[in-house]
Amino acid sequence: MLWSGWGDPAKARELPEQVRRLLHDLLGVRAPAVPAAGLESVRMPPAALEPRLLDALAGLVGDGHVLTTHEARVRHARGKSTPDLLRMRAGDGAGAPDAVVLPGGHDEVARVLRLCAAERIAVVPFGGGTSVVGGLTAARDGFAGVISLDLGRMDRLVEVDAESMTAVFEPGVPAPEAERLLAAHGLTLGHFPQSFEYATLGGFAAARSSGQASAGYGRFDDMVTGLTVATPEGDLDLGRAPKSAAGPDLRQLLLGSEGAFGVITSLRLRVRRAPAEKVYEGWRLPGFAAGTAALRALAQDGPLPTVLRLSDETETMIGLARPDRIGGGEAGCLVIAGYEGASVAARREAAAAVLSSHGGVPLGEEPGQGWAHGRFSAPYLRDSLLAAGATVETLETAGFWADLPRLYDAVRLALLGALGSPLVMCHISHVYETGASLYFTVVTAQEDDPVAQWERAKEAANTAIVEAGGTISHHHGVGRDHRAAYAAEIGPLGVAILRAVKDRVDPRGVLNPGALV
Ligand SMILES: Cc1cc2nc3c(=O)[nH]c(=O)nc-3n(C[C@H](O)[C@H](O)[C@H](O)COP(=O)(O)OP(=O)(O)OC[C@H]3O[C@@H](n4cnc5c(N)ncnc54)[C@H](O)[C@@H]3O)c2cc1C
Fold first, then answer.
1. Which ranges carry the FAD-binding PCMH-type domain (predicted)?
2. Backbone φ and ψ of 285, nearest 5°
3. Measured between alpha carbons, how far is 508 from 506 in angstroms, rounded to an integer?
4. DSSP alpha helices (H): ranges in 420-472?
């Protein structure tokens, strides 16, 4: 993973000339005056952990598994939001931990947490490091130091129960590896977020992730049937049956807890049979309102495709759903519909009738295949845009169908008001019977201080989301960036309840301080 950008540097691409011209003519984008920093020149606070504490940590996880090198600290300093990348490109590694600790199993995690609580060392669990909400940078004040607890060594598929259709994994398994391990049993998770190439199963659970095929496979939190969690005060082993009426479901308290309540050390996940057939196709709908109505009909009355995505007019015109075709988009609103598993032909035919009845025109399989082929390449495009002098970032929310048009307008207007004349694009890619998510992509020319520029826009968007009745996050989580808006969403009593839980499982407050609550 590129330390100041996304993914495998070998997959990075130059921006096509057509896109450069578009950025310049439409938005006034110019190449940044200052070149991006090199890894060796990143500035970080001096490491604060005393040698005796480093020795004690090494005593728990083994000598080679406590890293204090410049590179290890830089690579664990932040997540992958645009402000994170802009700061790293500017050589600002202020969030870096003092050490990276790699436990080999549950018991080592538990011992590390007890030591850290006793010595007041902040602990930031680290999965794939793809957080986009500031979930990986701990508050330092009042602590003897900060460690990044990298779960990368805990990367095993522990057990497959083909009768119950569940699989038990350690938390550090990256998503592609999970799919590879399950494929050997003819199974799949079906969880394909855009961060698929690097994010881990523990991170998905901790941040309540949702993948691009959520219509067919559900969100990640729908897949978790059991969790083992280590806290400084002891362990939790949750989920002994598929469903239960035995009081509130404590799994739900841990899902989305972002390392603030404990470290997920094992997950039992619902799995599905790997689909024999996959078909993706494109449709053109006359406008976003008609497209939204079509998606609502599919979500409420069926049949629901496995993948269902609607781009608004601007996203369709730019061609963002097809990073291989950027700049070559078309009129109307593009729908991508994908069908996996059983009865593909029948579901496809029935969904086609619904899409047609809303004015949809079939575009065949080519746009669908193009989307499937390029579905993980947009983050690489972001790096190229940042290097070219554009600020590009995404944000997301969700609301009930009845509120969706108002939410869409409110967020768009807030972004336009905060940034002047940015390009604001949106799509719906997660639908439910009662509502859907809205996912915005914003592109604008970088100002002298692009981080402050984005913070201004993000603040305006957050306020608009809260006022229009949307949730502050459909699938990115809370981290530090959404903490204030999340508090507004759940109210003072809600915050006090979360605080009480945290005080019980983490009385010294060492678990990911500053995140969530
Ligand atoms: C380019 C890009 C595209 C993305 N696309 C999507 C998308 O389509 N859908 C989506 O849902 N998200 C998406 N994300 C967000 C991100 O990938 C998810 O939040 C993902 O769940 C994070 O997984 P991770 O393993 O990288 O976790 P990390 O980023 O390492 O951690 C996320 C949070 O969880 C905590 N944590 C991690 N592991 C554990 C553990 N085992 N126990 C307790 N706490 C833990 C961390 O401390 C942190 O607060 C995207 C991010 C990027 C950069």
1. 93-274
2. -105, 150
3. 6
4. 450-467
